[in-house]
Amino acid sequence: MRVVGGLHRGRILNRVNKETTRETADMVKVAVFNMLQLNSGVVLDLYAGAGSYGIEALSRGCDFAYFVDRDKDAIMTVKKNIDMLHLNDQAKIYHQTDEQFLKNLDSKIMFDTIFLDPPYDDEPYQKVIPNLYDHLNQDGYILCESKKQIQIDMDIKGLEKIKNKTYGIKRITIFQKR
Description:
By secondary structure, the chain is of the alpha/beta class. It has a single domain (about 25-145, about 160-175), classed as Vaccinia Virus protein VP39 (Rossmann fold). It is built from five helices and seven strands. It has a seven-stranded mixed sheet with strand order 3-2-1-4-5-7-6, with helices on both faces. The longest helix has 13 residues, at about 70-85. The termini are far apart. The mean pLDDT is about 95.
């Protein structure tokens, strides 16, 4: 697993190496970031794993990233990757569940892009996305990675599904706040 674009392009990231954590293939990351064209803003990498989505965003010019995961080994891996790339002043890392993070999230914190890549056995989208909506800036994105069998549909006024594409066993669904 590596950073596929930006300042840290080609750098190899540490892996969590647990069955509960899976990697996002480089091909999928390239496709996602080509779609989003991120080069600034604040991102949330919820269910961070090794932190590859948030790190990729920082490498491509985003200003700050929040990394959240409930798994201690995942959090230790995110910290190693952030330290290795000297991104400490652009990152905040939380060892919390999604519920804990959302419950304690300061109402003033806003995101331009939110990455949701939970373990495939979890399907938290219906409960998490409505709680994140008020923290998403206008024209901001929520990107969901899931099993290809999962169709994520949200009926939230102002949130539009703009992409729904499969890559092998994965599905990428992108919503935008209009």
